[in-house]
Amino acid sequence: MLDRLPARLQFSASTRSKLFDIALAAAVALLGVPWHGTSPLPFWVQIIVVFPALLVRRRRPLIAVGVSLAAMLLRTNPLPAMIALYTLASRRGPTKMTWICSAVGLMVAVGLSLPVSTQYLSILLLLMGMLVGFPLLFGLWMFQRRKLMDALRGRAEQAERERDLLAERAVAAERRRIAGEMHDVVAHRVGVIAIQANALTVVAPDAQTSQVAGIIQQNSTAALAELRDVLRVLREDGDPESSPPGLDGIPALAEDSRVAGRAVELSLPDPLPETAEPVGRAAYRVVQEALTNVAKHAPGATARVCVSATPEGLVVEVSNDRTTAQPAGLPSSGYGLMGMRERVSLAGGRVDTGPAGGGYRVRAVFPL
Predict the structure, then answer these.
(1) What angle do the packed helices 188-203 and 207-236 form, to 10 degrees?
(2) Range of 274's domain?
(3) Which of 72, 77, 234, 257 would suit a FRET pair with 270, their CA atoms being 20 to 30 Å apart?
(4) What's the CA gap between 212 and 366, in Å, rounded?
(5) Are residues 204 and 255 in the same domain?
């Protein structure tokens, strides 16, 4: 119910406890009608002495018990003593001091009720037992309940930590397995390509063949370097040694495509806009994947790469013309565009792909 109050009217748990103690102590003090007799002394004892003692009952339960039992000797209301005994039992538990204070309270209550006739003795003992036994048992029950809740909370936290640890171990093992597969398959194949391209540059029959072999050797070597960084991240869960490419790496992508014989038109703002690292890296990967798709599915087509900073955000657009050439026939996993969308989404942007003007267009928008 308190949670429904406006934020300015809500209090912390400690503040609510203090307000409750003040209200309880005031209510008990105002009930200071003499237990026996008509003397006003018990009332003023509860106002001046018992009221402050009840305010500190959580931090100093022994003081509250001692003051309230001493006030009972003046035939004050026994309710403060019951509250103090409950607080002592719930805070200290079944300790020696708890049993001693309970015994003293029972003796004080019985002593104040004597002498009494034999026919009312059983009723008196029952009332005194309730006067001391009820707050004692209820306080001990609260103490055990608090200990049980703390133990259950500790077990739940430990189970959660163990579950997170097992999940981290499973993820680490899977990352190492993936890294091993990538090293055994991809790195081996790319390494063979690099070695064969290097050998071809030596035995090439003409300069053009030697140049193409050099391009293949250069790209395969760069792929091995990037693959090494990826494997290091997968195995060690660390950062790559080389800084990840961003917007400043897009001109190199366009130049690599031109060197490979593909027509690429590049348009970049000068200077390049400042972007967060995930945004720059995602924009770079969008251009890289789009140029790769142009080379695979539209060989001979002119690719246009346009990067601009607009009120909409950072816009990265890669499009290509219509082409009549047959696709290169390279194997495709079908995960290129899917991975592009996931990467752009993680960077806080959106991407649109589809036919445009007889060709194909990829348009990604990132927040600046």
Answers:
(1) 160
(2) 247-366
(3) 257
(4) 36
(5) no
